[in-house]
Design a protein that fits this description.
Blueprint: H1 3-20, H2 23-35, E1 58-61, H3 70-86, E2 90-93, H4 108-120, E3 124-128, H5 136-139, H6 145-150, E4 154-157, H7 162-172, E5 176-178, H8 188-192, H9 195-198, E6 211-214, E7 219-222, E8 225-234, H10 235-241, E9 253-260, H11 264-276, E10 285-292, H12 303-311, E11 318-320, E12 333-335, E13 338-342, E14 347-350
Parallel strand pairs: 1-2, 1-3, 3-4, 4-5, 8-9, 9-10, 10-11
Antiparallel strand pairs: 5-12, 6-14, 7-11, 8-13, 13-14
Helix pairs in contact: 1-4, 11-12
Length: about 350
C-alpha cells in the first residue's frame, strides 16, 4: 500500500469515529489537536522559523482548497513555475491541482494527504499553494501538526489559505507566510517584498536586516506606534474560524485584514462579530489591506466608512490601504514575526527574521 493510500485510510478512520460520535475516538482526536496547540499569548520568545530557500530547493505546489482550471494552469501556473526555475528553484506539482466538477480540487482525504506528503518529504524545502478558493477548513482536522512542527519548511498562500498559515503558526509555533500562490501574478512589487523574507540569498543578503515598508499613500485611522506578532489574512476566513479549535488568537497581535467581493454591510457584520468577541480590542495594532470588488451601489455607506467607524475608536494604531489582498501587487506577511506599526509615520517594520539562513 502506498504512503498516500495509508494516509487516506487513517484519515477516513478518524472521520468515521468523529461522525459516529464514538466517545473514545472523538476524545483522542481532540486531545491530540489540543496538545499540538501552544498558548502563544503566554510565550515571550520568538517562534521557530523554517529554512530559507536556496538554489536547488524543491518547492511543492499542492491544492489544499480549490483546484485551478486548465486555462489558468497554462496561463498562470506555468508562468509562476517558470519564475521559480529562473530563481534556481525546482517546482514539484501535486497530482490533484486541476479543478474538476467540484469547488474542491479533490476529496478532503486526498488534498490533506498530498499536503502531508510534501511536509514529510525531506527533498521538499517549501510549499507554495496553487490557489485559495475554498476547502482548507475541511482538512484542518486531518493534518498532522506534530509532523509539520518536526519538518519545518516555508508554507505560503493567501485567501482561503489564511486558515492554514495561521493554524501552522498557532499549533506549531512556526512562522508561515501570507503571500504569493502559483495561480496568482508574481509582479515586480510582489517579488520585491517576498524574496527578502524567504530567499535572501537570491538578493545577495548574508544576514537579517529589519525590513521597513513606508508609503505616504497608507491611511491612518488612528495614531500611535505599537509592536506585536503578525496574524491575520482574509476577513471571511478569520470570522469563520471563530468558535472552532482553530480560532485565531489576536491578543497583543498586529492583525491584518483583507477581503474580496464583500459588500459594505457584510464587512460590517464580520467586523462587528470580531468586535463583539473582543478580538479587535485585544490587538496591539491593525493593518488593513485591500477590500476589492465589493461596493454596493444601493447604499452610500462604503467599506472604508465601515472599517473606520469600527476601528478608529479602539485607540490603537490602525493603518489602511496596505498593498496586500486579492490584488496584483502583494506584500508578503510572515505570520508570527514581530512587527512594529507606526501609524503617524505611515510605516510597518518587520523586526525579526522569518527564515533561517
Amino acid at each position: 500500500m502506498s504512503p498516500l493510500s495509508k494516509n487516506i485510510r487513517r484519515m477516513r478512520r478518524r472521520q468515521l469515529l468523529t461522525s459516529l460520535g464514538v466517545a473514545a475516538g472523538v476524545s483522542l482526536v481532540h486531545a491530540k489537536e489540543m496538545r499540538a496547540a501552544p498558548l502563544l499569548d503566554k510565550r515571550l520568545f520568538p517562534p521557530n522559523v523554517p529554512p530559507a530557500l536556496k538554489p536547488g530547493t524543491k518547492v511543492g505546489i499542492p491544492a489544499p482548497a480549490s483546484g485551478i482550471t486548465k486555462e489558468d494552469f497554462e496561463r498562470k501556473a506555468k508562468a509562476f513555475m517558470k519564475v521559480l526555475e529562473e530563481l534556481s528553484l525546482v517546482p514539484v506539482l501535486a497530482k490533484s491541482v486541476l479543478a474538476g466538477s467540484s469547488y474542491l480540487a479533490a476529496p478532503d482525504e486526498v488534498r490533506a494527504a498530498e499536503f502531508m506528503e510534501f511536509v514529510n518529504n525531506k527533498e521538499i524545502g517549501a510549499i507554495i499553494c496553487m490557489r485559495g478558493g475554498y476547502g482548507v477548513m475541511r482538512i484542518l482536522p486531518m493534518l498532522d501538526f506534530e509532523a509539520i512542527q518536526r519538518n519545518p519548511k516555508i508554507i505560503c498562500g493567501f485567501s482561503d489559505i489564511t486558515a492554514l498559515v495561521n493554524t501552522v503558526y498557532q499549533r506549531c509555533n512556526l512562522v508561515a507566510f501570507h503571500g504569493p500562490m502559483a495561480a496568482t501574478e508574481f509582479d515586480d512589487f510582489t517579488r520585491q517584498w517576498f524574496l527578502p523574507l524567504v530567499y535572501p540569498e537570491s538578493l545577495g543578503k548574508a544576514g537579517f536586516e529589519p525590513l521597513t515598508y513606508a508609503d505616504a499613500r497608507l491611511v491612518a485611522y488612528s495614531s500611535g506606534k505599537a509592536r506585536g506578532r503578525i496574524v491575520g489574512g482574509n476577513l471571511t476566513l478569520i470570522t469563520a474560524l471563530m468558535g472552532t479549535p482553530y480560532d485565531i488568537n489576536t491578543d497583543g497581535a498586529v492583525l491584518f485584514l483583507e477581503d474580496v467581493g464583500e459588500k459594505s454591510y457584510k464587512v460590517d457584520r464580520m467586523m462587528t462579530q470580531l468586535w463583539l468577541a473582543g478580538k479587535l480590542q485585544r490587538c496591539a495594532a491593525i493593518v488593513l489591506g485591500q477590500f476589492t470588488e465589493g461596493e454596493d451601489a444601493n447604499f452610500s455607506v462604503t467599506i472604508e466608512d465601515v472599517l473606520r467607524s469600527r476601528l478608529a475608536p479602539l485607540n490603537i494604531p490602525v493603518l489602511a490601504n496596505f498593498p496586500l489582498g486579492h490584488v496584483k501587487s502583494n506584500f508578503t506577511m510572515p505570520i508570527g514575526v514581530l512587527a512594529e506599526v507606526d501609524a503617524d509615520a505611515r510605516k510597518i517594520r518587520l523586526l525579526e527574521p522569518s527564515v533561517q539562513s
